[in-house]
Specification:
Elements lengths: L18 E6 L3 E5 L1 H5 L7 E8 L5 H7 L4 H8 L6 E4 L3 E9 L10 E9 L2 E6 L4 H12 L6 H37 L5 H30 L7 H67 L14 H22 L4
Parallel strand pairs: 3-7
Antiparallel strand pairs: 1-2, 1-3, 4-5, 5-6, 6-7
Helix pairs in contact: 4-5, 5-6, 5-7, 6-7, 7-8
Amino acid sequence: MAQTTENIEASHIHLDSSFVIVFSKSKGMRRLTLEQLRDYELESDEFYWAYLQRVAAQNREFLEEVGLEHSDIDDLLAREVRPHCHVRTSGAFIAINVFNELPKQESGDMECAQIWVDAKRMICIWHDPLDVFQSLLEGFKTRVPPESTAEFWARLVLAIAERAEDMVEVLQDRIDHLEDVVLETGDHPWESELAQVRRLATIVRRSMLAHLDILRNFEIEKFEWVNRINKRRVREAGDRALRIAEEMDAIRERAEIVHDQIMFKRSENTNRYMLMMAAIAVVFLPLSFVTGLLGINVGGIPGSHDPVAFSIVSGLLIIFGVGLFAIVRWFRIF
């Protein structure tokens, strides 16, 4: 016998524990526990979303009871899995990267959501709460909840693309700032900041290409429970993922241009300083030679007993130095 439950609002759903939400066109959203779902009979217009914490002890037992194959259960509960889409007869196992925030390390801020989706259920395994699901719940407040698992999946991949687009804007602002600093003010920003932008663009690009591959693999499958509208939504999410990957390529190219400009300015400054040192050497090296020659402690130096010889030699050296300086300036050495 079906168990009755109270309707809930999206604002009452918290993503810090495991739960099950039953979606119905006529009855709205209802929250159940895993134990309540065992005795609940889904109606023809209902499907459920199970949001399970990976470390929960009862996960395997629950997944076995809902009828998943052992290989799919192992994939869902695996701690490390590469992003991919594994299609079965009735549904699909999907491992997809989700960013909670702009990553600071190679994988430290990137979470992999492991999902099973078929006609009547969508099961998500999480280790840390994922903000993308919170954004979906907030969307339920302003528009009608999804009417099928296919629509829920389409909304999820679109939400992931939206979060990635936010990261694109952040990286574009950062590279714009670096370009302004280098090209307009002539200052040299920290190279570590530029390297971080290039690294982040590479991480997001790689994630979006994997995202695109997953969506295309899912799109080509002819699931009866995925209608044309939701296929179009999934295709749109794939197009956005491709556009984001292209934006990341553009950001990396701009970062390379900024890096080349930094190196050019650094080389230009170095050359200018070396040229200045060479010009100074041209002026003072002959003077040092003359003064060194006159300072040797041997007899026979002209004017050694003349009281005005030092003044005469000093005057000649000044005139000679000014002449050398004029020659250097004439040839525009510096």
